[in-house]
Design goal:
The protein is of the alpha+beta class. The protein is built from 10 helices and 17 strands. The protein has helices spanning 17-31, 39-46, 50-62, 86-89, 112-121, 168-187, 240-245, 249-253, 259-278, 284-293, and strands at 2-3, 36-37, 66-70, 74-79, 103-109, 129-135, 153-159, 163-164, 191-194, 198-201, 204-216, 219-229, 301-306, 309-318, 324-328, 333-336, 340-343. The strands form 3 sheets. Strands 1, 5, 6, 7, 8, 9, 10, 11 and 12 form a 9-stranded mixed beta sheet that branches. It has a 5-stranded antiparallel beta sheet with strand order 16-15-14-13-17, with no helix packed on it. α2 crosses α3 (50-62), α6 (168-187) packs antiparallel against α9 and α6 (168-187) packs across α10. It is elongated. Bound molecules: biotin (BTN). Residues 111-113, 135, 138-141, 144, 146, 148, 154-156, 198, 208-210, 226-228 line the site of biotin (BTN).
Length: 348
């Protein structure tokens, strides 16, 4: 978890008015279920001119929607892009889910975490999601750069629940369980967790999580939960250092991954846990067995790169606050709050 400086002003919607109209048009096409929708009908329903409707449809085509058009009948939606826009996401969310009720999608952004923090400063509500096709300044843990070209799912969720600070570390642990469940349900792949919160497939990283927090008194006021999922990345485009340690889900599965479905699964798992944490309950104990069972770190000889130096030994356990216990070569057990685990058998 990394501390952030965020200021609050007025309540705004993450989406502009034009984006809200765009989303309403998509909803009307989805409701038509493959049938024709006339420009006149859209214009009457939305109270905007036919020219404005045409412009919106053109905008949709520019981002990957395809339509057929028939004189007098109107447009027929043929296909949608792999973008978790609100109307494509909401059908997969349980009605009770408070996360993902507003989605800001951007084709390119510096960092979705930075954007979510800016929206938070403008008063964006709890559950706002920021998602981008690519990031120019994707942030990784401990100040590192995060490789985020087109093809991945780069997303940040804004949490504005007063979670007690001493339960905050559970958030990232729970996020890794939520993402693991989502990835396994969508792909059938056997995904492991590497402490503290990387997700691996066959030992290679497919997802990283970066939680940036702002505290007020004893509680978290704002948390930006950033997730970088290597969904549809072409592994041949990975920089040399990454190709040894990371992979993508589509490469593992030889088929593309649906962004709206994965994201909806993550949010649906996470939402009740966030509410429980906010009501002062501990949640990690409920899923600790699953976390430990899927954890590739425990029981292995490790070297852990920590802010205070390298710790070498055997990874013994992770407690309910996410602290890693390593029996060091010299004998004593060391408690590690944050760091990067290197497995002894990994490429050095
Ligand atoms: C890690 O170092 O493992 C954490 C990587 C987190 C990357 C994601 S991508 C979406 C969100 N926006 C960012 O700038 N970072 C996170």
């Amino acid at each position: 978890m990394e501390q952030q400086n965020m200021h609050e002003t007025i309540q705004i919607s993450a989406r502009s008015e034009s984006e809200q109209i765009r989303d309403e048009i998509i909803r009307l096409f989805l409701k038509a279920n493959g049938g024709f929708v006339s420009t006149g009908d859209l214009s009457t329903r939305l109270g905007i001119s036919r020219t404005a409707i045409w412009k919106h449809i053109q905008g949709l085509e520019n981002i990957g929607f395809t339509f057929t058009i028939q004189p007098r009948l109107g447009h027929q939606l043929k296909s949608v892009p792999n973008i978790p826009l609100l109307p494509l996401l909401e059908n997969h969310l349980p009605t009770s889910c408070q996360l993902g009720r507003d989605v800001k999608w951007l084709p390119e952004v510096d960092s979705t975490n930075a954007t979510a923090a800016r929206l938070a400063a403008q008063g964006a509500p709890h559950g706002t999601v920021v998602v981008a096709d690519c990031q120019t300044g994707g942030r990784g843990r401990r100040g590192r750069h995060w490789f985020s070209p087109m093809g991945g799912l780069w997303v940040s969720v804004l949490l504005r629940r007063p979670i007690p600070l001493h339960h905050a570390s559970e958030l990232t642990l729970l996020s890794s369980v939520a993402i693991r469940r989502a990835l396994m349900a969508e792909t059938g792949l056997d995904i492991h967790i590497k402490w503290p919160n990387d997700l691996l497939y066959k030992g290679k990283k497919v997802c990283g999580i970066l939680a940036e927090i702002r505290a007020e008194g004893e509680n978290l006021a704002t948390t930006v939960l950033g997730m970088g999922i290597n969904t549809n990345l072409s592994v041949v485009e990975f920089p040399a250092d990454l190709s040894l340690t990371a992979t993508s889900l589509s490469a593992a599965l030889s088929q593309p991954i649906s962004h709206p479905q994965i994201l909806a699964q993550v949010l649906s798992h996470l939402d009740p846990w966030v509410e429980q944490l906010a009501s002062g309950q501990r949640v990690f104990p409920q899923v600790a067995a699953e976390w430990r069972q899927s954890c590739s770190t425990l029981g292995r000889p490790v070297r852990v790169n920590t802010p205070s130096g390298l710790v070498t030994g055997d990874a013994l356990a992770v407690d309910e606050e996410g602290i890693l216990y390593v029996r060091t070569l010299a004998g004593p057990i060391q408690k590690i709050h944050t760091g990067d685990v290197l497995f002894e058998e990994d490429p050095k």
